[in-house]
Amino acid sequence: MADSPSPAPKADILVIDDMPENLNLLAAMLMQQGYKVRSVTKGTTGLRGAQVAPPDLILLDINMPEMNGREVCQRLKADARTRDIPVIFISALGDVLDKVNAFAVGGVDYISKPFQVEEVLARIENHLTLRRLQRQLQAQNAQLQQEMLERQQAEEKFSKAFRLSPNPIAIATHSEGRLLDVNPSFLTMGGYPFDEVIGRTVDELGLFRSGEAMVPFSMQGWQSLVASAMPNQEAEFLTRSGSLKTILFSLEPIELVGMTCVLLMINDITERKRLENEFISLVSHELRTPLTSLMGSLDLLASGQLGHLTEQGQRVLQIATTNTDRLNRLVDDILDLERMRSGKIEIRRVPCQVSDLLQQAIDAMQSMADQAEISLILQAPDTSFDPTIEADPDRLLQMIINLLSNAIKFSSSGGRVWVRKQIVAPSQFVERGDGSAIASDGEIPGSVLSSVQSFSSDAPGLLIGVEDEGRGIPADMVQRIFERFQQVDALDSRRKGGTGLGLAICRNIVEQHGGRIWVESELGQGSRFWVWLPQRGETQMNTDGHR
Ligand code: ADP
Question: Which residues contact 520 (CB under 8 A, 6 or more apart)?
Fold first, then answer.
């Protein structure tokens, strides 16, 4: 009832008065207004009732035999359970001294006999409202205190984790990467004294090496670092003494004293990488000899020169051969990558006819595509357009075949795979209103245009695209899959026969030609791998991305 005169009809009121006629009158008046009323004639009974079930308000007669109202009030105020209940005294008209005493023992108000209905109700309502507000305030206070405590605890925890973390952590401003705080592990890894880094920017200190081998586009500075933020990106960190550490880093935005900052969390994997490299090359070299002999023996068995095998024997031999082939491929890939990384494989640049290369790659993959029921489509908007590029044809072929093999492997039967090529010089792009662009021999998506522009000078380059309609790659993996042994699904190597090294090899080949490789993908929709190579290869990078 919106127009009810009492906004708190359910309040519980205890009336203590030794005169039954007073009690009845008050109780009837209050109940009519919707209050819940308990009435008692003795001070002791009233006290007990208030302790057992504290009411919202007490009306208390001052003058009562046995225990008078003042004493009842004193006891109510002395007990934590009843201390906060507002007490309104009932006094005889003109009993001034009683009223003064009543306030002294903790009463909040008084009403005089004979009762004026409106006055009694107004005073009761007034004090109920005050009590409600007081309760709300107490609850808010308690909540605030709890929040402050939790905040304090969270800050303490964060601060402890920050100081004691074995991983280097820094807090920097989001806008320019100015270091506000770094933890001891950060200083230990970088060899910097605290004062030398605080207040300076990541760029001024040159902390991050361009890491071209690690990320698709060169990190030109803090801005591109923040823009390309991905969890656990690999990069190189320059220490004070000039040595390079391989790190994984993540950037997490945080608000600090009203400023947008980032938490830069680093994992130093230099030693792990070194051991991994050593282990890999040792294992692969050690595997090479016994593997060759194993393959020879299996060949001999298969040839029947040592007697004929039963059908079951042939099946087992087939399984052994398939797995040995896979192992052999893995060792080949590892050694290949090792040789590239250590610069033992020189690339031989000769003018190559790009269309020829693409056609050779398609021919090489056609039977695999047929088996998987995938159509390979060479997209050539202008057949007369046949650019040449200075590159190592064997290596380029190896790379395109790798990309095609993946596109086929990760597509479902009936799918299509497109290969396309374009010669592009960023300034020759004609941008169109819809964000895409026209290059010399066809269209390219706007995203590719901005990628190429971000790393390329204006020298013309060859853009190769391999596009599929397959399962796609999750966003957090689009950079990582170019690292060794990174597969989206741990079962891929067994199910699809891969080694997790194909793309690492591709990236190496591309970087040795001074180019870039990256992928755009949408889960369930397909992937587009893009390779950009300078048309004339003056620059050559080694595998770490340094010239
Ligand atoms: P693999 O030998 O496993 O194919 P790669 O280095 O060539 O190794 O690829 C690494 C991983 O990247 C693959 O295992 C797969 O998870 C993912 N991947 C590569 N190409 C594609 C693609 N075209 N579609 C979906 N996922 C892909």
Answer: 445, 447, 448, 478, 527, 528, 530
Bond preceding residue 114 cis, omega within 30 of 0: yes
Average pLDDT over residues 404-408: 96
Q: How confident is the model at residue 190 (pLDDT cuts 50, 70, 90)?
A: very high
To test ligand 1's pocket by mutation, which of 406, 510, 517, 521 has the most ligand atoms within 8 angstroms of CB?
A: 406
Query: Among 328-332, 380-384, 416-420, 442-446, which stretch is predicted with the lowest mean pLDDT?
Result: 380-384
Q: Is the pLDDT of residue 539 over 50?
A: no
- What is the identity of the amino acid at 390? E
Q: What is the C-alpha separation between 400 and 14, in angstroms, rounded?
A: 89
Beta carbons of 264 and 186 less than 8 angstroms apart:
no
Tell me how far the alpha carbon of residue 542 lies from the centroid of ligand 1, in angstroms. Answer: 23
| Single-letter amino acid code for the residue at 451 | S
Closest CA to 216 of 482, 430, 16, 432: 482
Closest ligand 1 atom to the C-alpha of 498? Answer: 2
Query: What pTM, to 2 d.p., does this model score?
Result: 0.56
- Over its C-alpha atoms, the chain yields an Rg (Å, rounded) of 41
User: pLDDT, tens digit, for every residue of 241-272?
Assistant: 989 898 988 888 888 878 889 999 999 999 98
3-state class (DSSP) for residue 393: helix
| Ligand 1 near 487 CB (within 6 A) | yes
Rounded to whole angstroms, the Cα distance separating 460 from 23 reads 101
From the CA of 334, how far away is ligand 1's center (Å)?
Answer: 16
How far is residue 479 from each of residues 234, 484, 499, 504, 518, measured CA to CA in Å? 9, 11, 17, 11, 8
Q: What stretches of 105-221 show up as alpha helix (H) in DSSP?
A: 117-164, 184-190, 194-197, 202-205
Q: Does 227 have pLDDT greater than 90?
A: no
Length of the chain: 547
User: Following CA atoms 330, 478, 345, 455 in sequence, which dihedral angle do they give, to the nearest 10 degrees?
Assistant: 180
Q: Distance between CA atoms of 517 and 546, rounded to whole angstroms?
A: 16
